[in-house]
Amino acid sequence: MDKINWMALPEEYSKGKFIILPIAYEKNLTSGRGASKGPGEIIKASKHLEYYDEEFDCEPFVEGIELLPQLNLNDNKPEEMIKIVAENINHIFKLIPKQQIFKQYTTKQNSDKFLIGLGGDHSVTLGIVKGLESIHHEFAIIQFDAHSDFRDFWNGSSLNHACVAKQLSKNHSMLIVGVRSMDKSEKEQIDLNENVYLLLDHNYNITKLGEILPKLPEKVFITIDVDVFDPSFIRNTGTPEPGGFIWGDLIKAIKLIFETKTVIGSDIVEFSPKTNFESESFALAKLVYKIISLQILQTQKRKEQV
Q1: Which of 1, 9, 103, 297 stands 20 to 30 A from 205 (CA)?
Q2: Largest CA distance in the chain
Q3: What is the pLDDT of residues 198-236, one digit of tens each?
């Protein structure tokens, strides 16, 4: 099989600052299935992207975008999935050879890489964050999601996709944005946790987001569950909810985050391609490219300030 590059980029741009890690994994989901197929469809759609980002006036691809081989983990238990994802991320950043795909790396640390994970159900974020914890010290998690994901257990596991935020909050400050479905017990737990901030969808605005961001640590990781979007925009997700963000809402939000904080990585999860999904997979590929654009602009701005 021919090697697939992100955006079908020429080989000279298929290595560099940006790393895309596809993780095919779904386990004990609440409703719809198919999240393990999401990364592949987003990657396929990326070949239709324009190289130039007209909104942010840059060509992000020139920094190099490396697409790693997909981790196929559907047969693994949640604990195993988290361990494998974390180990792979450690090898990406610390460049310690272990698996075949990392043969070309040396032991020299390379913490300036920027990682974007593609899930998979939302539990893959647990593995990604665990991997980043060995690279970065204190950082917060900003989660865009229609659900709070603050349950202690779901479908017999504390590592289920419905428990992700609760698990992450044990070691990180959190801001959960766009919630429009949750259990009362989740709300009560969040209210008792002074390190977790909640912006519900029905009263969200960009001003409120800007007021909370200074309360978080300087470094942040952004996780985007695609069900944060209005189903009129993204239907192919396991647990869609009425209402939600449209495209411009999310771009403005992540732009403000990049302008305010140091973003160390991101992921996009819970895309479950089933029916008429081509425009949605293209939109999510473009979202990846927007995140890359914003990271480049953030780096340029900080260099200018030095």
Answers
A1: 297
A2: 52
A3: 999 999 999 999 999 999 999 999 999 999 999 999 999
